[in-house]
Amino acid sequence: MVTTVVRPETGATIKPGPMVTVPPELEIQEDQLEGFAAGSGLNAPFLAGQLSAFIAHERMGLNLLRTLHTRTDNPALRSRYADLESDTLEAVTAWERLIIALGGNPQYASPAGRVTEGLDSKIVEALLLSGSADQMTFEQACLQAFLTGANQCVANATLLAAFADEADDSPAKQEMTVSAEALLPPAQSHADWATKMLRKMAVTQAKHPVAQKIGQAAEKAMDKVRNAVTPG
Question: pTM of this prediction?
Answer without folding.
Answer: 0.84
